[in-house]
Amino acid sequence: MSLKVNNNIAALSSQRYLTENDRKLAQSLERLASGFKINRAADSPAGLVVSEQLRGQIAGIDQAIANSESATAMVQTTEASLSEVNNLLVRVRQLALHASNVGANDQSALEADQLEISNAIDAISRISRESQFGRRNLLDGSTGVTGGASGAGLSFVSASQYTRTSPIQGYQVEIEQVASRAYMEGGTEITESNLPGMTLTLEEGGRTAQVQSSEGDTPNSLVGKLKREAERAGLNLDITLTPAGTLYVQHREYGSAPTFRAGSNVAGVLSESGSGLEVATLGADVQGRLGGEIARGMGQLLIGQSGSENTDGLQVRYIGALVAVGEEGPDGRPIFERQPQPGIAGTINVANNALTFQTGPNAGQSTLVALPLSSPNFLGRKVTNASGFSSLADVDVRTTAGAADTLKITDAAVDELTLARGRLGAFQRNNLEKNIATLRVTAENLMAAESTIRDADVAEELTTYTKNRILFDASAAMLAQANTIPGKVLELIR
Questions:
Q1: What digits encode the pLDDT tens for the residues 196-218?
Q2: For the chain, what is the radius of gyration of the CA atoms?
Q3: What span, in angstroms and rounded, lies between the C-alpha atoms of 59 and 70?
Q4: What pLDDT was estimated at residue 327?
Q5: Domain 181-279: which topology?
Q6: How far apart are CA 90 and CA 113, in angstroms?
Q7: What gap in Å lies between CA 443 and CA 437, rounded to an integer?
Q8: Distance separating alpha carbons of residues 318 and 295, to the nearest angstrom
Q9: Model pTM?
């Protein structure tokens, strides 16, 4: 060992260790004080990047949860208003039934019923006009999807929140195949010779109607008996004896789904074999395009397919234009019937004002919902009635026919409203509530991951702190000892 005065290597080494131990001790104290093991980028550059990304995701998820809860509150407010409208419709229906009891009602009772119905309709109109969430109207149609049709025999049915607003000229409706109904036509004429003992059987929707000819029956009377029996059994069929004397049976509903079976014990009158029931010739669904996009047919409904760019969820009905056929009727007016034809049926205009909720933590993760229009002028619009009521707003129970038609329109309005409430309930349950539950689990997992990267393990840091404190004290003591070594040179001089 050599003794030197100018350079004390032992002291320099001790000082270096003291500086390093001081840095480590300060780092341990910082981590214990802050609770984080990453307090600056230099602590862990890669860990900081991942941690900050996770923190951003967690903050986004927290806001998405708050957004979903706000959307849930709006849907619940809307549903509560619709519930009150539903209660008012139930009361209108009750009053219509009371007014239908003509044997016990006088004119003053009918006037009282009509007065209460008018008040209920005014209340429905007020709820539709004034229901709000904050300053946003809910049931006046400003937050829904509306539409209209231009074209003979073409009507707008509905649209979903995914249907895009149409251009000014509307979406062109092109019919490639018209809808038809299931039918069965006999090839054998019903005559006086084959009439005795003839049995005719129809089966539709799980219900059966059967008649047998009796003495004195004619072809017309037997077909009349079959019609009455079919009506009594609730069969949804039209039955006709053609001018040629053959039997023609047709389903009342359009499309490939509605069908029936028929048979006769005389070959060719209905079934060809004369034994057992045979399935009718199936009808066809309408086929075509909406706005140039292929649509799906269901009876007379043409429905925009899921995933279509513009017409997803759009529903239109095509029944064909009225065309004068045959000779004039008994009243001297021409006889008209619907004759749907392939080709351009018209246009549909759609205005989509559906609400958009940001329910996810990233761009594009949004959900749409359209709120219904509950105005009396809108409810019950599509009900055909003898009184000429165009909607719930027009009903009048002061006549027997008016009371009956009010009942029809009210039932339709209840159906429309309950369907809208069901859609909102499904949206709340399946979209919002499930989304909130999923986001909370995701946030929990992301917090666990971020904590693993960024949070300090206190037990581990205390162990490290104790070690660094001992090393710091030891290096300080050794530096003091090393600084005394050059003094030994003086002892040699003495």
A1: 889 999 999 899 999 998 888 89
A2: 41
A3: 17
A4: 56
A5: Immunoglobulin-like (2.60.40)
A6: 14
A7: 10
A8: 13
A9: 0.70
Q: Does domain 36-144+358-455 have CATH number 1.20.1330.10?
A: yes
Count of positions (residues) in the chain:
494
**Alpha-carbon distances, residue 1 vs 425, 479, 491, 494 (angstroms):** 90, 18, 16, 20
Domain ranges, ordered by start, for the chain: 36-144+358-455, 181-279
223, two tokens: 């077909």
What is the tens place of the pLDDT at every residue in 214-270? 888 899 999 999 999 999 988 989 999 999 889 999 998 899 999 999 999 988 888
Three-class DSSP labels, 395-460: CCCCCHHHHHHHHHHHHHHHHHHHHHHHHHHHHHHHHHHHHHHHHHHHHHHHHHHHHHHHECCHHH
C-alpha 225, offset from chain centre: 46
Strands 343-352 and 145-150, by their bridges, are antiparallel
The percent of the chain in helix, strand and coil, each rounded to the nearest 5, is: 45, 20, 35
Q: What is the pLDDT of residue 74?
A: 94
Q: CA angle, corner 34, sides to 28 and 35, nearest 5?
A: 80
pLDDT at residue 124, rounded to an integer: 95
pLDDT reading at 276 higher than 90: no
